[in-house]
Amino acid sequence: MSELSLLAGGTGTPKLLSGVRRLLDPETIAVVGNTGDDVEIGGHLVCPDLDTVLFDGGGVLDRERWWGIDGDTTATHDRLQELAAEAGLGPGPRYLPPAAQTSGRRIAQHRRFSGVAEFMKIGDHDRAVHVTRTGLLDEGYSLTEVTRLLADAFGLDISLLPMSDDPVASIVHTDEGPMHFQEFWVARRAEPAVENVEFRGAKRATATSAVREALSAPVIVGPSNPVTSVGPMAALDGLTAALTETPVVAVSPFVGDEAFSGPAPELMRGTGRDASTAGVAEAYPWVDAFVLDEADPTELARPTVRTDTHLGGPEDAERVARVALTALSEVGAEVAVEGER
Predict the structure, then answer these.
(1) Residue 269 burial (CB count, 10 A)
(2) Is the pLDDT of residue 339 over 70?
(3) pLDDT, position 91
(4) How far is Cα 338 from Cα 22, in angstroms, rounded to an integer?
(5) Owning domain of residue 299
(6) Confidence band of 1 (pLDDT split at 50, 70, 90)
(7) Looking at the domain assignment, is residue 301 inside a domain?
C-alpha cells in the first residue's frame, strides 16, 4: 500500500511529482492519472496524462514541452500531413462518423478521430507506445494492466494507475458546438467560447479497486487544471467518496486570479466558477487544506500553507512538495520524508 497518492493531470502535478520523489521512497508513491483527455487517433489510443508520468519516470520526457519523448522524430506524422494535402483532404481534426464512436472496443462517444491529417503531433517512438497500448487492449487486457506493463517497460519505480478502466471523454461545449478537450486545446488553442464541460461516460464509469486502495492513503492534488485534469476524476463513482474520507491537500494552479498556464481560466468561467484560487476551493469541497503562493491574496476557510508555488525546476518542486506534506500534517496525516523516518 502506498504512503502517499497524487492525482495527476496536465503538467502541474507531474512537475510536482519530481519534488515528491526527492522526499519519499518512490515505491511508496501512487499516481492516479486522468484519462478524460484520452483520444483515439487513427485507431491508436493516446493517453496524454498517463504518458507524461510514464515518460518522465522513464527519463525520456521532453521537459521543454512537458509532453512526448525527448528528441523524438515525427516522420510518420509529417507524412500524414503531406498525404492529406496531396489528396485534397484538408487539415484535421476529423472525427469518425457518429456510429463509429461507440463501435468496436469500448470507447466513450466523441473521442475517436481519423488518422487523416493527424491533428496531434505524435512522435515516432511515442506512437510505438500507443500502438502497443491499443494492441494489448484489443488482446483483452484492461487499461490498468496495460499501464502496469508499460510502466515496467519504462522502469517506473512508482505505481501509476489510470483513474478507471472505463472510458470517459472530456467534452467542451462551446459557441461553435461540442468538441473533445484535445480538439479545443490542441487544434483550436482554446479560442472558442466555453459554455460548459461534460464528462461523457462518467456516470457509467467507476474508479478501479486499485485506485480506491491508493486513495486510502493521504492525497496531494498538484496545480493541475481543476476542470479537465481533476474534474473527470472527481466525477467518477466512488472516487469523490474516497477523497472525502482521506486527508487531501491541493496546490492551487492560480495566484489569486492569475493562472500559471493552460486554459484553466476559460474552463473555470465556462463552468460557472471564478477563475481564481477561490474558484478552485469551491470546485474542491473534499480538500482539507491548500498550498497557496505567498503572493496570493486569497483567504480561505480551510487550513492554508504558503510558499512560492512556481515550479521552475526540481528544487522548486521539492520545496512545494515539502510544504504540501506540512499541510497534510496540519490535517492529521503524517508522511515521513526520507531521512526522517
Answers:
(1) 15
(2) no
(3) 85
(4) 8
(5) 4-69+127-169+197-330
(6) low
(7) yes
